Amino acid sequence: MDEIQSHLSNADPFQSWWPFIIAIGVGVVMTIKNFMGGQNSPSTNQINGQIVVITGGSGIGFEITKELCSRGAHVIVATKDIKKCQEKLEIIKRQIPSASVEVRHIDLKSFDCLKRFAKSVIKDFEKVDILINNAGIIFNPFDKTVDGFESHLQVNYLSHFLLSSLLLPLLKNATNGRIINVSAHANASGKVNIDDPLNIGQWAPAFHHRDAFAHSKLCVLLASIHLATVLKDTHVTVNTCTPGLVRGTDHLSKSPIMNAMCAKVITYPWMWLLMKSPTQGAQTAIYLATEPNLKTVSGQYFNDCEKAEINKDLCDGELAGVLFSRTLSALKMDSFHQ
Ligand SMILES: NC(=O)c1ccc[n+]([C@@H]2O[C@H](COP(=O)([O-])OP(=O)(O)OC[C@H]3O[C@@H](n4cnc5c(N)ncnc54)[C@H](OP(=O)(O)O)[C@@H]3O)[C@@H](O)[C@H]2O)c1
Ligand SMILES: *[C@@H]1O[C@H](CO)[C@@H](O)[C@H](O)[C@H]1NC(C)=O
Ligand SMILES: *[C@H]1O[C@H](CO)[C@@H](O)[C@H](O)[C@H]1NC(C)=O
Ligand SMILES: CC(=O)N[C@H]1CO[C@H](CO)[C@@H](O)[C@@H]1O
């Protein structure tokens, strides 16, 4: 230690290697950080007059909302905490005086509440151009909703399925309706069983919150890809994205694994280096919402504003279809087009 210190204090920037070593070190760290941050949405076009519905107005949802406001859209933010959300949106209004944004109540843990939300949108709007199914929960303890479903499954998957179906008439009324679902890398560790794709009643006593999250996000991906085929004769597209690993939202900080102080101290520097900021995490959804060239692209999975590989056997096979039809019956729907 003493040796290093004396080296440092004696270092003459023109005679010692230290400045170069430090500069290279900083360069390597920043290169890693930039690489892990992913790319910005390559499209910068305006979407004036378009109506956007997004679930969840904090974290990544807040960043998506802000950007789409700056592109001229009218954004309806569906949130379970109106007051908190309104306070956040004040920030947007201060930064973007022309922002057109409103808040409406939704609780994705209750189908009744969700239906009330959809009704209010249908009453007030004739079209919806973009629906972004962004809200989600992660690593929550086992819990059943009032509707009797495991909470990750209902919040992340079933509710967004239902919302997409209820708003479909408005999406069809837009010239190029777009449904954007937010999944996660974690879909890769999810398992969907063809005999019981929704895992109903399978959790207790073997419940693990990580499996529940991964399962719900794999359902999102599979159902989205199947839905694209169901909607192929309409102007409505449906694509799925993953934000990547994002720090600084409630997603990880509120999850039980991050509660321990030592976990924070150990992980924060790594999170800063290896994970995306919420703004970076929002880029792929923004790209899917605004890119003109994606008008007819449907049923794809995107990461870092680029098409990502999916497991074709899983997504195009029987499983996705079975999941889709079981989801319809779990939601007591005859078909996706009501
Ligand atoms: N952060 C990551 O590393 C990461 C990685 C992969 C995927 N994702 C996905 O990206 C999306 C956004 O995540 P985030 O990082 O921004 O997390 P976040 O900060 O926790 O935001 C989640 C949002 O979901 C909303 N929400 C949760 N439960 C709800 C309910 N019952 N009813 C209505 N809204 C509810 C919250 O609304 P309130 O504001 O009203 O509480 C919040 O706006 C999620 O789908 C998540 O799974 C995130
Ligand atoms: C679709 O738009 C037309 C007018 O452009 C309107 O009359 C109709 O009610 C809209 N449909 C829905 C489901 O709102
Ligand atoms: C996303 O895509 C379609 C749109 O309706 C739906 O079937 C699917 O379940 C949705 N994803 C979610 C969030 O589950
Ligand atoms: C089933 C499936 O296609 N899973 C995908 C989940 O996400 C990862 C990475 O984001 C993909 O590589 C998998 O193919």
Question: Could you characterize what this model shows?
Answer:
Helix content is 48%, strand content 11%. It is α/β, with parallel strands linked by helices. Helix 3 crosses helix 10 (278-290), helix 5 runs parallel beside helix 6 (151-173) and helix 6 runs parallel beside helix 7 (209-230). Strands 3-2-1-4-5-6-7-8 form an eight-stranded mixed sheet, sandwiched between helices. It has helices at residues 2-10, 18-37, 59-70, 82-95, 111-124, 151-173, 209-230, 250-253, 261-274, 278-290, 312-316, 318-330; strands at residues 51-55, 74-79, 100-105, 130-133, 178-182, 237-242, 301-303, 306-307. The structure holds NADP nicotinamide-adenine-dinucleotide phosphate and 2-acetamido-2-deoxy-beta-D-glucopyranose (3 copies). One 2-acetamido-2-deoxy-beta-D-glucopyranose binds at residues 185, 187-188, 221, 242, 303, 308-311, 314-315. This is Retinol dehydrogenase 13.
Taken from the alpha-carbon principal axes, the silhouette is globular
Ions, cofactors and other bound molecules: NADP nicotinamide-adenine-dinucleotide phosphate, 2-acetamido-2-deoxy-beta-D-glucopyranose
Number of domains: 1
Proportion of beta-strand residues: 5-15%
Number of strands: 8
Brief overview, please?
This protein is an alpha/beta fold and 338 residues long. Helix content is 48%, strand content 11%. The protein binds NADP nicotinamide-adenine-dinucleotide phosphate and 2-acetamido-2-deoxy-beta-D-glucopyranose (3 copies).
